[in-house]
Amino acid sequence: MKEHKLLRVFWEILLGAFLLMPLIVTLIYSFVKRWTGVLPEGLTLQYYLAAVTNQSFLLGIFSPPSPRRKGRHSAPSCPFYG
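-> structure tokens emitted (82 positions)
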């Protein structure tokens, strides 16, 4: 019984690492200043700073959705927004 539990824990950790690896690599890659070969050349927060100081980005993130206009070219109704 104890061996089965250890095997199950091992597979859960392996599966978790496998599923999280693309997210972790993408996050690391987003901080890289320039990638030349196998290793990055520097780290930066420049792109995140540019995003959070962009007014359009902030309005898109923090503004509520605008009401839909009824008209000839209106989109199909959404169950979440009426």
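The CA atoms of residues 27 and 41 lie 16 Å apart.
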